[in-house]
Amino acid sequence: MAKVLFFCLSVCFMIMLAPASLQAAGIAVLSHADITPYRMAIAGFREHVDLPVHEYHLGSKNEHRDTVAKAVRQQQPELILVLGKSALNFTRSMQFGVPVVFVFVLHPNNDSNKSPSKHPRQPGEFGIAMSIEPEQQFKMLLSIAPGMKRIGVVYDPEKSGVVIRQAQAAAKRLRIHLVAMPASNQHDAAIAIADMMANIDAMWMIPDTTVLTSTTFKQMMRLSLQHAVALIGLAPKYVRAGSLFALSFDSRAIGLQAGDMAMRILNGETLAKRMSPEVVRFVLNKQTADRLGLYLSAARLKQAADLYPKRKGESN
Questions:
Q1: Angstrom distance (rounded) from CA 224 to CA 297
Q2: What are the C-alpha distances in Å from 79 to residues 88, 107, 178, 209?
Q3: How far apart are CA 281 and CA 261, in angstroms?
């Protein structure tokens, strides 16, 4: 009997001293859909965490909201990884009371075009930005085309005011001129794009859903050809369509970075509330560069993660 009691006490003592990772309820991963970028990010996230990871899908119309809320409360996770704005708003409204790391959220502080979020940020909320720093994009443009000193951008002040202020400061440091024109709707954006195209060297596309639509992108493409203006793309698909280049993030790398953030948060480290993507992919359209009369060295071409247009037989 004494041996049994000693064994039980020993087991209890070992459990008390066990690392938190062995006792934790794990991490909850919330998203509204099972799509490829999310899957890649979650795979990267799983590689970097040493806790159980449980995935929940809210559904495209939040139809599984109640079921997911109940399951997460039963799980009692140590931390929640959120993918997408819908899942972020859900997490905010539920107030689960644990740290949150979010990715794939374009405007974390806005629910709509004009109004601030009705689901306020939580104290323990951290995120990775969906955009690349303006200065990094401008430096890339200057390295490809040193003579391009006038960069145009159209933006909605309600959505992109902060980004434009950062860009203006970056332009001043780099001694280039940023022509920034505000637009509160797509009609005004189209007018602003047409007005500035003849007086700029490059047009900078930003993740502003008021300004950047399929219609305005077609307009940018048409006018850029007419006025020999370089387009700084927002993502690889725009480079494939004819923009000069884009700097974008890699979904799996975003997941790895989010996993690193999660473990550091759980270890008690103090982190910035917003971080930039650590891994940036450079995508280039050589045909567009040739059309603009730009010389691209072999080293520059080799630097590109993807080069467009693809040769026959190559995958897009």
A1: 23
A2: 13, 22, 41, 30
A3: 21
pLDDT for 309 beyond 80: yes
309 preceded by cis ω (within 30°)?
yes
Handedness of CA 146, 284, 140, 223 (dihedral sign): positive
pLDDT digits (tens, 9 = 90+) for 241-253: 999 999 998 999 9
Q: Show Cβ contacts of residue 225 under 8 Å, excluding neighbours closer than 6 positions.
A: 291
Decide if 304 is inside a domain. Answer: yes
Listed in order, strand segments (DSSP E) in the chain are: 27-31, 53-57, 79-83, 100-103, 125-128, 150-155, 177-182, 202-204, 230-233, 245-249, 274-275, 280-285, 306-308
Please tell me the distance from the alpha carbon of residue 90 to that of residue 111, in angstroms, as a whole number: 12
DSSP letter for 77, please. -
Q: The domain containing residue 194 runs over which residues?
A: 134-248+281-308
Domain total of the chain? 1
